[in-house]
Amino acid sequence: MALSLVMFGPPGAGKGTQAIRLAEDRGIPQISTGDILREAVQTGTELGGQAKAVMDAGGLVNDTIMVGIVRDRLAQDDAAGGFILDGFPRTVAQATALDSILDGREPIVIVELAVADDELVNRLSRRRVCAGCGSIVGASEASPACGVCGGQLIQRSDDREDVVRERLRVYHQQTSPLVEFYRRRPTFHRVDGSQSPERVARAVDESVDAMIGAGR
User: Fold this and answer.
1) Is residue 182 part of a domain?
2) Contact between residue 87 and residue 175 where contact means Cβ atoms under 8 Å apart
């Protein structure tokens, strides 16, 4: 069966890493909202032009434009056998629209990576990025220089503790309604994202396989 999966989790939970890995293992595209938005703008589609006008004016792309861009992307041939959405939906309105877009397809599988805020603050506030090659170094690997190119390791401004806590506050505020929207579905599962990446990967795989059966 085609796997239609939504993966979400707070900043620092490892959502992007797990989405990319799962997509590669299952042979389906990982669709990042940021990537398809940039692609729509660069290729000059009608919706991309609308999004560009909003962003150039300093605004946020609204649900109508974002839903249209996602609809166009999911209609492409490579998504016919399944996909993993990373960064969409962000609102209940977007989730409702996604249900409509996928009407007639297999039920959506939803995976939430859950990690306590204090753990996330610890992860992100101790994370460093190489100024030379952009490699990300975790807390346990921290050293004076990048192990890839020898460049200087720096802290990103949005990884400061006060900024991280504000990002988490906004995330919880936006995501709580989404959790309520999805959590009663048999294809919703919460995975403990505080484990090692390998354990999280196994838990995600097991959850996806179990939920595919539950959604039939």
Assistant:
1) yes
2) no
Establish if 132 belongs to a structural domain.
no
Token pair of 124 as six digits = 């992100």
**Residues acting as catalytic residues:** 15, 90, 127, 156, 167
Residue 166 half-sphere exposure toward CB, CA atoms < 13 A: 7
Average pLDDT over residues 36-58: 87
Per-residue confidence (pLDDT) for residue 188, from 0 to 100:
95
pLDDT score of 140 more than 60: no
Range of the structural domain that residue 68 is part of: 3-117+164-214
Q: Using alpha carbons, list the distances in angstroms from residue 22 to 19, 73, 134, 152, 203.
A: 5, 19, 23, 32, 11
CATH number of the domain enclosing 57: 3.40.50.300
Residues forming beta bridges with residue 31, ordered by sequence position: 85
